[in-house]
Specification:
This protein is α/β, with parallel strands linked by helices. It has seven helices and eight strands, in the order E-E-H-E-E-H-H-H-E-E-H-E-E-H-H.
């Protein structure tokens, strides 16, 4: 039966070589009164970037850099979310406090030592988003005092992520100048841009 099919041409890979991943095209520019869904990273369209609780925080930071994100979902062996670790968790005061409290070396700090556990994270229900605007998300982030907020589906699974840095970038604020450790500055820069 395979005799009717011709062999396709192939060639050796030119290693090292990259690979494709799901991609969600987000609009380059949004307005404060634009749809909130235009600034959500939808995990049905983009693969979540994950890490294990027992991985080193240096590995977490490297993964963030490689994937161009500032937060990783922390998953257990059953691939269930047990926490969230952000660039602020890795680069901020948490690691230094952990070193001082436990007498360990920085390179020995694990993700589980500085992550925010899942039961301490708030999330927005995706059913509340169709009528929500970008401004609603910014107000929610500011109120929580966090750079990221999660979105859950009706079954309670993580469906998406909102990032203050991503929103700033889409609003036209120079996201490179935003220090993730200074959340108030992030919102001040966004408000200054929108006041123009």
């Amino acid at each position: 039966m395979l005799r009717t099919f011709q062999v396709l041409p192939s060639a050796l890979l030119r290693a090292p070589v990259g690979f494709c991943a799901p991609e969600q095209p987000l609009p380059n520019r949004v307005a404060i009164d634009g749809p909130a869904l235009d600034v959500m990273t939808d995990l049905k369209r983009v693969s979540a970037v994950v890490i294990r609780p027992s991985d080193a925080i240096d590995e977490a930071l490297e993964r963030m850099k490689q994937r161009g994100v500032r937060a990783l979902l922390v998953i257990n062996s059953e691939r269930l979310v047990v926490g969230l670790i952000t660039a602020t968790d890795v680069l901020g005061e948490k690691p230094m406090r952990f070193v001082e409290a436990h007498g360990v070396r920085h390179e020995d700090i694990l993700v589980q030592d500085v992550m925010t556990p899942a039961d301490a994270l708030e999330a927005i229900d995706v059913r509340d988003l169709p009528a929500a605007k970008v401004g609603h998300i910014l107000a929610t982030l500011r109120h929580s005092g966090r750079q990221h907020t999660l979105v859950t589906d009706p079954d309670g699974r993580i469906r998406g992520i909102f990032s203050a840095t991503q929103i700033a970038r889409q609003l036209g604020v120079d996201a490179q100048s935003i220090n993730p450790a200074e959340l108030a500055r992030t919102f001040s820069e966004i408000e200054a841009l929108l006041a123009r």
